[in-house]
Specification:
The complex is a heterodimer of chains A (114) and B (341). With 114 residues, chain A is mainly alpha-helical. In chain A, 49% of the residues lie in helices and 0% in strands. Chain A has a single domain (22-112), classed as Alpha-helical ferredoxin (Fumarate Reductase Iron-sulfur Protein, Chain B, domain 2, Orthogonal Bundle), CATH 1.10.1060.10. In chain A, 36% of the residues are buried. Chain B has two domains: 4-108 and 270-339, FAD/NAD(P)-binding domain, CATH 3.50.50; 114-266, FAD/NAD(P)-binding domain. Chain B is elongated and about 65 Å long. Helices cover 26% and strands 27% of the residues of chain B. In chain B, α3 packs parallel to α4 (176-190). The chains are: A mainly alpha (114), B alpha/beta (341).
């Protein structure tokens, strides 16, 4: 078969219905403060990882909620769990615990094991 | 026989209440803890949204109170507030006893003490100021750093002490966004070569002509708006302020060196109000402001019959709302004096 160098790129759209949001549901249940995020970015501003690598806890929160799990899995490893974000959050979100719970949720699911 | 009402607090709400009551022939004792009336209005230079001079509103309020029938008691606080039969007995700090047919509480607000947000360095770094400090500078006509040098880059931080669980204030103070926009314009007007950056979580431009002022700030004055909550400020070796924020719309952390930081301090229940709540047995809400009996149709009524609220002692309000709320309190008092006994 001839290959002409073309590929079909994966869509950028968030396909809300198809996405699997069980990770988010698991975190909502275990850490209800997860619902309180207003996307102010205070967590990312203080985050050492964010300042040196491509990582944003604020963005990660949204990606979890939308069920963009591939991206979540890639990003989750970068958090060093220092907890500075939790000190900053004006909404009292236990941000550090969200990362911990997301990791646990992935481990519980073979499909998404990290 | 003429009725007598004691009004606690001589700010915008208290002055309006006193003026309106005296117009209908009710005698008023207006109690003010400072040595003059006017409250926070005395500390503000210009007012949003039209940037008129605050003295114009002060003149209106003073005019209202020149009708006669108002006794202004300055340097006075309240030590006791008791109901005895259909009257109230009020004891002042000087031991004077006042007998009133009704009481209006207009104790207003205190500005959030910005030093409590230690991460912004108010009272620690040289060039961190509050919105109130800036008004003071505008009044004096001297907008400068602590060392007298004119600032070139100025950062304005929104929501200092508002919408912040870390300081125990869940609520939005409602006025700081538009104050930031107003002050940003004033800075640009005063220092045409300066650059001004507003750091916000949400722009809450809900009042009349607020959105227009926001647009003017962008269009005419080139004020920069960056969406993100500043997490901390630090002082650099050259005495500048280094702030850290996420530019949430770019999705990347951002650092910036600024000459001056201005903190938009929110509104809190006043210390005076807290004291009155304690001695008078008046109910307060989760936000520590006085709790009215109904959010929709009883916003002036307290849990004690004959005690009413006017203005920002119940919630953050702008001057327009405060005056409206004060007038509504007057209607409630007149109704009470006529019909409740």
């Amino acid at each position: 078969m001839n290959k002409f160098g073309f590929t079909i790129s994966k869509g950028r759209q968030i396909d809300y219905e198809s996405n699997d949001r069980r990770i988010a549901d698991y975190i909502f249940e275990k850490e209800p403060s997860f619902r309180l995020c207003i996307e102010c970015g205070g967590c990312s501003a203080t985050c050492t990882t964010s300042n040196f690598t491509v990582f944003s806890l604020r963005e990660l929160n949204i990606l979890i909620k939308r069920g963009e799990n591939d991206q979540v899995r890639q990003n989750l490893k970068k958090c060093m769990l220092c907890g500075k974000c939790t000190l900053v959050c004006p909404r009292g979100v236990n941000t550090r615990n969200i990362v911990v719970l997301a990791k646990k949720a992935f481990q519980k699911s073979d499909e998404y094991a990290i | 026989m003429s009725k007598h009402v004691v009004v606690i607090g001589g700010g915008v709400a208290g002055l309006e209440v006193a003026g309106q009551l005296s117009k209908v022939g009710i005698e008023v004792s207006l109690i003010e803890k400072e040595n003059k009336s006017g409250g926070h209005l005395n500390n503000w230079y210009r007012l949003f949204p039209d940037r008129r001079n605050s003295t114009e509103v002060k003149e209106y309020l003073d005019g209202m109170t020149h009708n006669g029938g108002i006794k202004l008691l300055t340097n006075t606080t309240i030590e006791k507030l008791n109901r005895s039969g259909s009257h109230f007995s009020i004891t002042t700090n000087e031991g004077k006893e006042l007998i009133a047919d009704a009481v209006i509480v207009a104790t207003g607000f205190d500005l959030f003490k910005s030093a409590r947000k230690e991460e912004y360095g108010y009272g620690i770094y040289d060039n961190v100021f509050t919105s109130a400090d800036l008004e003071e500078m505008f009044k004096k006509g001297e907008l400068a750093l602590t060392n007298g040098i004119v600032p070139e880059t100025i950062g304005i931080i929104h929501c200092v002490g508002s919408r912040d669980e870390k300081v125990g204030n869940f609520y939005c103070s409602k006025l700081c966004c538009v104050t930031a926009v107003k002050q940003a314009i004033e800075i640009r007007e005063y220092l045409p070569d300066s650059k001004v950056f507003c750091f916000y979580m949400d722009m809450r431009m809900g009042g009349a002509f607020y959105e227009e002022l926001y647009r003017e700030a962008q269009e005419k004055w080139g004020v920069n708006f960056i969406r993100g909550k500043v997490s901390e400020a630090s002082e650099t070796i050259e005495n500048k302020l280094l702030i850290k924020v996420e530019d949430t719309l770019a999705g990347r952390p951002l650092k910036m060196k600024l000459d001056m930081l201005v903190l938009m301090a929110g509104m809190e229940m006043s210390e005076g109000g807290k004291k009155i709540a304690g001695i008078g047995g008046l109910r307060t809400g989760e936000n520590r402001f006085f709790a009215a009996t109904d959010n929709h149709f009883g916003s002036n009524k307290s849990n004690i019959e004959g005690v009413f609220y006017a203005g920002t002692c119940t919630a953050p309000m702008n001057i327009t709302e405060t005056i409206s709320h004060a007038r509504a309190a007057v209607v409630e008092v007149i109704d009470y004096l006529k019909n409740s006994k």
